[in-house]
Amino acid sequence: MAKQLTIFVENRAGRLKTITDNLRKSNIDIRAFTIQDRGDYGLLKLIVDKPNDAYLALANLGCACALKDILAISVPDQPGNFHRLTSALAEHNVNVIDAYGFVLQPHNTGVCCMEVDQPQLMKAQEIVAEAGFTVLQDEELYSL
Amino acid sequence: MDVPFWNKQVETLDRASLQAIQLERFREMVAWALKTPFYGKKLASVGIASPDDVKSLRDLGRIPFTVKDDLRRGFPRGLLAVEMSEVVRIHSSSGTTGIPTVIYFARDDLDRWTDLLARSITATGASARDIFQNMMTYGLFTGGLGLHYGAERVGMTVIPIGGGNTKRQIQTMKDFQTTVLHVTPSYLLHIHSQFESEGVRPGDLALTRAFIGAEPHSENTRRKIEDLLGIQAFNSYGLSELNGPGVAFECVHRKDMHVWEDAYLIEIIDPKTGQNVEDGQEGEVVLTNLIRRAMPILRYRTRDLAFLHPEPCECGRTHRRLSRILGRTDDMLIINGVNVFPSQIEEKIMKVPEVATNYLIHVDKKGALDRLTVKVEIYPKLFLGEAARLEALRTRIREELRSSIVISPNVELHEPGSLPVSEGKAKRVIDERPKD
């Protein structure tokens, strides 16, 4: 299953730079990122090529960070496909906590990263596969 | 100026007669104190085994001080001098840690305390013709009920509205044409700032006086209140260890507060040496309760800094006047009239595993009101990367703190290592309230 690195970042100038600087020094390649804004702090969410190395680099720095299993779903980049995905999850009552997407090749492939409640993770994976989507495993995701 | 009295005979007693009453009551209090395990031991250690061992008021100096921690260690009944069946009311105030300070009153104690409040209210010129809106918190805090019963004894029309709910406070002032308020200065200024949005002009109201207390404030703040509202504001002083409000109150001259010396022995000491200082010199206020039998308190170190005026007041009262509270000898914070010890906050934070041991207490003003923010650090090993859990943590810390310090602070979550470290003498409290 794909791993997402989540980092607690205070909402003030210069904090992101400290993190990116350390990832750069550890030669980590960032594939995707998003920031969930919570007011006085934010959660920086990263998909990287070497999740464990990135985690250790930041944890050694004293950061509050966590590796978490998420669903990384390959979604063909055409109108209606994301809707098909959300419909399948809705039908089975799976709640999405947070999600973000990125397009790999325009009009060809996109990736949707989804956080769902941990107890629902395996079930969600089956639902998505049954709906005809490919769930990317970690190596597949990082080597895109 | 017309100077009204509740009990002119007592309030204008010559010094010698006042001291005679003090000695008689002091000896009586020593007798009650000897019934408690706490003072039984304490008084025995200085050779006082019966009230007969007290010959003059000078013997007060032989008695060791009582501090807040003594009350905490005596919790819950170490200082109780009567059977619980004789206790008719309990009040409580915040302790320096999770254990509160409990105060017991017997029926006669409440009667004498209420009389002091009636005396205080009358001294300001308020009377039975007034409509009194009591905006202090009722309940365990002594401020609400203390003035409530005092005002009833004077015969005022009492509106026991309690604290908070600004809209309703303003509407009530208008509906009942309230003339006298009892309120913290910061809340009164906040109320005033809401007049416009509530569509109220001071001319719509009938306010003439405010009893302000429960938090230190400057002469400038008093003047601001008086100018903005077109009223007279009277400073007051009290603490639950000494019954509550009504230890000292301003008279019509509003030139500092008369300490009711037939009910309290007041000393001002050098906080370092414990020695009494001259009238007029600043020091720590030490008080002995002369009127509460259920729970006697002798030589209580209040930690408040103030001085006594050596010269008499124009009103003719012989009871000396205490200055405004000029500061504290400890780190207690007063947030919108509520006493908060940093140690109470620390104790709670240390029990939350998801946050590290570093923390910072930040106080500032938002409008007229104080705002308390507690900053804590995320503990990396228990961070799971979920926003919902962080918000639940924030709420839990806020609720935990509220259960201990009564008020509900803002809680800010910070990165590990971003707050001052817990070793050494880190500055954990930043108070940015203007001192004016």
Extended strand count of chain A: 7
Helix-strand sequence of chain A:
EHEEHEHEEHEH
Radius of gyration of chain B: 23 Å
Distance between the termini of chain A: 15 Å
Can you list the strand order of the major beta sheet of chain B?
4-3-5-6-7-8-9-13
Secondary structure tally, helices of chain A: 5
Describe this structure as you would to a colleague:
Chain A has 144 residues and is of the alpha+beta class. Helix content of chain A is 33%, strand content 40%. Chain A is built from five helices and seven strands, in the order βαββαβαββαβα. Chain A has helices at 15-25, 51-60, 81-91, 121-130, 138-142, and strands spanning 2-10, 30-37, 41-48, 65-76, 96-105, 109-116, 134-135. In chain A, strands 1, 2, 3, 4, 5, 6 and 7 form a seven-stranded antiparallel beta sheet that branches. The model of chain A has no long low-confidence stretch (mean pLDDT 92). Chain B has 436 residues and is α/β, with parallel strands linked by helices. Chain B has two domains: 8-330, 3-Layer(aba) Sandwich (Rossmann fold), CATH 3.40.50.12780; 335-431, GMP Synthetase, Chain A, domain 3, CATH 3.30.300. Helix content of chain B is 28%, strand content 24%. Chain B has helices spanning 8-11, 15-33, 37-44, 68-73, 107-123, 142-154, 166-175, 185-193, 219-229, 342-349, 387-405, and strands spanning 87-93, 101-106, 131-134, 157-159, 180-183, 209-212, 232-239, 244-250, 257-259, 264-269, 283-289, 300-306, 321-322, 327-328, 333-335, 338-340, 355-366, 369-378, 410-414, 429-431. In chain B, the strands form five sheets. Chain B has an eight-stranded mixed beta sheet, sandwiched between helices. Chain B starts with 7 loop residues before the first helix and ends in a 5-residue tail after the last strand. Classes of the chains: A alpha+beta (144), B alpha/beta (436). At the A-B interface, strand 1 and strand 4 of A face helix 11 and strand 19 of B.
